[in-house]
Amino acid sequence: MSDPKNGANGPKNGTGANGVNPDKDLNAQNLPGQRGDQGEIIGTRRGMFGANNGGDTSGYGGLVRTVRLPGATSRPYGGPGAGGAYGYFDEVADELEGALEEQGLLPENVIEKTVVDRDELTFHIAREYLPVVAKTLRDDPALRFELCTGVSAVHFPGDKGRELHAVYHLRSITHTRLIRLEVSAPDADPHIPSVVSVYPTNDWHEREVYDFFGLIFDGHPALTRIMMPDDWQGFPQRKDYPLGGIPVEYKGAQIPAPDQRRSYS
Amino acid sequence: MSTSSTSHATPRETTEGTVYTVTGGDWDEVVEAAAKADDERIVVNMGPQHPSTHGVLRLILEIDGETVTEARCGIGYLHTGIEKNLEYRTWTQGTTFVTRMDYLTPFFNETAYCLAVEKLLGIQDDIPDRATIIRVLLMELNRLSSHLVCIATGGMELGATTIMIYGFRDRELVLDIYELITGLRMNHAFIRPGGLAQDLPPGAVDQVRAFVKKMRKNLTEYDKLATGNPVFKGRMQGIGHLDLSGCLATGATGPVLRSAGLPHDLRKSDPYCGYETYDFEVPTTDTCDAYGRFLLRLEEMRQSLRIVEQCLDRLEPGPVMVGDKKIAWPAQLALGPDGLGNSLDHIKKIMGTSMEALIHHFKLVTEGFRVPPGQAYVAVESPKGELGVHAVSDGGTRPYRVHFRDPSFTNLQAMAAMCEGGQVADVIVAVASIDPVMGGVDR
């Protein structure tokens, strides 16, 4: 659970028609995907049935849902099986902070925040420090994350100033541990330092992310498209890039293209 | 507009504007120089349509005589945008897509995806035991069929067509089991978030038992045919060399990593689906070559048979889908005249007697279930290595982003390290020992 002053007050600060704002009702277990006031807002979803351009006659146009990702966690971070007590997540965080201090870096400058959610530890790293952190995580004997499982990216157009997130999963075979690094870059300046020099396996993975998201990995030996044709325009996995498709006829009925179908935001 | 002239491009005016004609110049010199050079350095393009490049893989080889001096891969010919498509379907429909990624390991794709969705939902502990055991059973059968294809096609690429016939003969037995259990030989979409689409049909357990018995016998034939065969060993030993540091640098996992002597297997080191309770071994070799990988795959198949038997012994009657009716598919599926569909009893109920059940069915089938916002990473040990799924939800009924870390994609990067400095003919052996499947590489 995150900072208690951020909410967790239950229904009494509700503002809905019935005195309850379900979005702020932490006890509303039957409402899926609600986090009350906690977490980090990355966007809002409006309406229903995908009618976002006006002309909504369904009556659901007034629905507003705030999307909140899990927010920063405070100590102890715990770990799998630790049950909220001191676990291997704390060990990794301690070692990493110590190793960064040894290199003359302030951990609070490097690690923007630490999130523990669903038994997974995520360090949000300031992008300029990513290669240093990766090298430290790989080389420090107490950390020793030998295996990088590549980089995935997520595009959050609603997360202003940090629209593009690059997500790295690092596995330590020595200590049988798994952590996640998350780095963000704004759409206006989509640059992240490459970690190919630390983890050569990320060569193709970074090319793939560049190909699909347009994230430029500075220092990559040959950042070219890998899946799409070399002369392709645009970055297909971005949220503003349409899926495309044509309507098809099935048993006499017109089935619209997948991105034109009814959606439940 | 002024027209400037260079020595190799003479301008001339036409009705369409100025046209420059690029002519000769240094091209003649280039050709002459190439003709004079006495080395035999040429660049060979192999694929993307070549019988021994494992699907639409393109290899660009720079060769000097018979020696490969540089090797590069061109991939993307089978990119189908599955990850993008997933963002436009419900979480349940996602299995239909992911099963088509690495089409030789469909159950691993499905299981990894479903485990990630279940982790996002926080229902890992609610999955019925029977569903988990059947998942393990199917995954281990799948490991057999995948390794059999690897050995079969690998043999064929060496010219050993008997191995190919043997491999596909035995794989057919596994596919028959798939067909009995899921109705399909490939692209099953049988494992669903929350459990399975269906329970095992009558006779499945007996057929799997008979298969295990038969397969035990058949596996010895590979030993007799290939393991000690001097021609086979001559082509495989010392080929596709990649040592431990090379494996870790290129991120190679699975048989490639274990052939370098490191017994890293996620089923042991980071168990999922209750693998910690099964009795099996993780074989390794220290030869770092294609022959070692072949031996590993044979041994892994034996270990898989052990796990399959343990699964059969553990099967107890029970549900195969999570109890939560907000997630579980509302109907029992039944075989009708037009294929598998909702059972007639269920249709009679929702159409005739219970409007609430009809509404619930409609909502769950068309809208799907919502998944709390957040992200999860789940990895399983596929026959090729670490198959990781990074799934992100924004709280909606569709995945916000799903990324597959496919082991074929990562392992294929090691191709250059394995092939450079070797013979052209050995490139095929090295690539076959990585066992890349382009459906997984390109997605």
From TrEMBL, chain A:
Under Enzyme Commission nomenclature, its number is 7.1.1.-
InterPro entries per record: NADH_DH_suC, NADH_quin_OxRdtase_su_C/D-like, NADH_UbQ_OxRdtase_30kDa_su
The source's superkingdom equals Bacteria
Subcellular location(s) of the protein: Cell membrane
Q: Which Gene3D superfamilies match?
A: NADH:ubiquinone oxidoreductase, 30kDa subunit
Membrane topology (UniProt): Peripheral membrane protein
The NADH:ubiquinone oxidoreductase 30kDa subunit domain extends over 124-245
Read off the Pfam families from this record.
Answer: Complex1_30kDa (PF00329)
The UniProt function text for this chain reads:
NDH-1 shuttles electrons from NADH, via FMN and iron-sulfur (Fe-S) centers, to quinones in the respiratory chain. The immediate electron acceptor for the enzyme in this species is believed to be a menaquinone. Couples the redox reaction to proton translocation (for every two electrons transferred, four hydrogen ions are translocated across the cytoplasmic membrane), and thus conserves the redox energy in a proton gradient.
Q: List the protein's name.
A: NADH-quinone oxidoreductase subunit C
TrEMBL record, chain B:
Q: Which parts of the sequence belong to the NADH-quinone oxidoreductase subunit D domain?
A: 158-443
User: Which residue ranges run through the membrane?
Assistant: none
Places the protein is found: Cell membrane
Q: Does the keyword Translocase apply?
A: yes
Which Pfam family is one of those matched by this entry?
Answer: Complex1_49kDa
What sort of enzyme, by top EC class, is this? translocase
Q: Which reaction does it catalyse?
A: a quinone + NADH + 5 H(+)(in) = a quinol + NAD(+) + 4 H(+)(out)
InterPro entries, alphabetized: NADH_Q_OxRdtase_suD (IPR001135), NADH_UbQ_OxRdtase_49kDa_CS (IPR014029), NDH1_su_D/H (IPR022885), NiFe-Hase_large (IPR029014)
Membrane topology, record value: Peripheral membrane protein
Q: Say if the entry is tagged with keyword Membrane.
A: yes
Write down the EC number.
7.1.1.-
Highest rank taxon of the organism: Bacteria
Keywords, comma-separated and alphabetical: Cell membrane, Membrane, NAD, Quinone, Translocase, Transport
Subunit annotation: NDH-1 is composed of 14 different subunits. Subunits NuoB, C, D, E, F, and G constitute the peripheral sector of the complex.
Its biological purpose is as follows: NDH-1 shuttles electrons from NADH, via FMN and iron-sulfur (Fe-S) centers, to quinones in the respiratory chain. The immediate electron acceptor for the enzyme in this species is believed to be a menaquinone. Couples the redox reaction to proton translocation (for every two electrons transferred, four hydrogen ions are translocated across the cytoplasmic membrane), and thus conserves the redox energy in a proton gradient.
This chain belongs to the protein called: NADH-quinone oxidoreductase subunit D
Q: Give the source species.
A: Streptomyces ochraceiscleroticus
Taxonomic classification: Bacteria, Bacillati, Actinomycetota, Actinomycetes, Kitasatosporales
